[in-house]
């Protein structure tokens, strides 16, 4: 019964779950041999990993919105940093709204450029990333800003409710909104339609520009939420805090079975993908794998998973 | 007879890239106290060379409608390999250089094979292989260092005279004050263009790359060997990125597996390709435009060094403003290039 149910799950998610189990088993074997403990299977460790995964998960959730359209957002690194800096600089009650507002503005700029100028999103968001970086460098004067995150941000990022990290609730909340939007509203249908064939969506009367802008705004909002949580997690905002989130977020989305060309993908896949990447990084670092080996394994895992289920159609043309 | 108007309408993107470069570099040379001298040219040619190579490397996959996010990593990997093998006796140095270029071409070949036979999207394949190559680079050189033959280093990073002086070859006097003053990196770029790019472009495989980028289906139905063209594009991309990495090793005399630097080179190469007039959708553009794109991108930061800090526009000279200006110019360049969408009457044409 359980096995048939398991086989009914999407192929990418099934494989990703399998790899997660494999990672945990490998790690546990390692700790059993070296320390005689099963540290990787303890609830504390797993919950802690989920907490860390929620930052990447939030970024990946947003990234999925634009990848579903067949676009990409390379401005993630500095959107995360900018939101964190805006939130810590504002402080007080308005810290979180200030961070989200920064994300909203960046998303609007990205969306307008891609929807109206028809500049490929890859190059436009890359330019926007450099501009935000420039603005933040001017703002901070090249030094780390001397501001701290507010207590609310720290509670959201590091606090626990009933033993479960609050960051996980934020991720779940944002995720449920996105799932609702994708599966229960017209907007969700429009996103998949545009990802499959934009011109067909346009001819069916969909306001494609509005959908593009809205998706880029959602992406930036998710990234800025991750930035706010990250600032709360490390009690401050600093330059380069978002650099480690761009490529892993793309990888998480793609590992989860979303087509990088758009039109196909599930939120569950992205969640599993984000957890897989965080676990892989964590287990490898606990196993004291040097950075070189970690990078090689990381790349190899992504390629081999995609070779198993991400291959394109055989016929060309 | 060449039809000038036709040539112009086909190459306006390249011409625009040249004009952008002339404006940016011209203003720099004009403001620089030793503008237009051989010493300054040599210095600038050295500063642009690696980005030029990496941008050329990026161009060829982009022409096929793909993307190579691993160019920075291949460049870095070759850089670390070079710091291990490019030293010793002349024959050892030669073997070392060949080994570097073989390694980098092999990296590109692997990319191409995974993309073609794995039937995966280039962007995600090169994202992953980029991590693998970076890991290998870190494995070879966990901390910066290594040893690169200093004679070769001197010979390659100055002007042509320096090659004769370094190896104590007789230097003809007419040569010394004319051709000899040309910066060696510029000559190397020309050699790469004439010996690698132009023959490749006019070959069936090279034309196939353009055809794939324009229309994959049409290229396949016309009987072009799509797979071979794609693999060749990524292999050549690896080779060019490798030349960049090798040169970086000569420049710094060492190897460094610098992860942020590799990422910066990859992203800058995409920007340079776009400024150089190559379409990210594939099929339009070329490597020569990317050379000017890369040179323009680098020249922007040159300008900040010579801006009169006490003048009325002195605030622009603030180094803190530099990233902001670079980003703004990049955004403006791509937006101006895209402004033609406002002239389109039928919105259906927007979707291509």
Overview of the molecule:
- The complex is a heterodimer of chains A (317) and B (352).
- Chain A is mainly α.
- Chain A has a single domain, classed as ABC transporter involved in vitamin B12 uptake, BtuC, CATH 1.10.3470.
- In chain A, 74% of the residues lie in helices and 1% in strands.
- Chain A is built from 14 helices and two strands.
- Chain A has helices at residues 2-8, 11-34, 43-68, 76-90, 95-116, 121-140, 151-158, 166-184, 186-196, 198-203, 208-233, 246-255, 267-286, 291-309; strands at 160-161, 164-165.
- A two-stranded antiparallel ribbon of chain A has the order 1-2.
- In chain A, strand 1 and strand 2 (164-165) form a beta hairpin.
- In chain A, helix 8 packs across helix 9 (186-196).
- With 352 residues, chain B is mainly alpha-helical.
- Chain B has a single domain, classed as ABC transporter involved in vitamin B12 uptake, BtuC.
- Helices cover 72% and strands 0% of the residues of chain B.
- Chain B contains 15 helices and no strands.
- Chain B has helices at residues 4-31, 38-63, 71-85, 90-117, 122-140, 150-157, 160-166, 173-176, 184-202, 204-214, 216-221, 226-252, 259-275, 287-306, 322-338.
- Chain B is globular and about 60 Å long.
- The interface between A and B is large, with 58 and 57 residues.
Task: Walk me through the topology.
The complex is a heterodimer of chains A (317) and B (352).
Chain A: H1 2-8, H2 11-34, H3 43-68, H4 76-90, H5 95-116, H6 121-140, H7 151-158, E1 160-161, E2 164-165, H8 166-184, H9 186-196, H10 198-203, H11 208-233, H12 246-255, H13 267-286, H14 291-309
Antiparallel strand pairs in A: 1-2
Helix pairs in contact in A: 2-13, 3-8, 3-11, 3-12, 3-13, 4-5, 4-6, 4-11, 5-6, 5-11, 7-11, 8-9, 9-11, 12-13
Chain B: H1 4-31, H2 38-63, H3 71-85, H4 90-117, H5 122-140, H6 150-157, H7 160-166, H8 173-176, H9 184-202, H10 204-214, H11 216-221, H12 226-252, H13 259-275, H14 287-306, H15 322-338
Helix pairs in contact in B: 1-14, 2-9, 2-10, 2-12, 2-13, 2-14, 3-4, 3-5, 3-12, 3-13, 4-5, 4-12, 6-7, 6-12, 9-10, 10-12, 13-14, 14-15
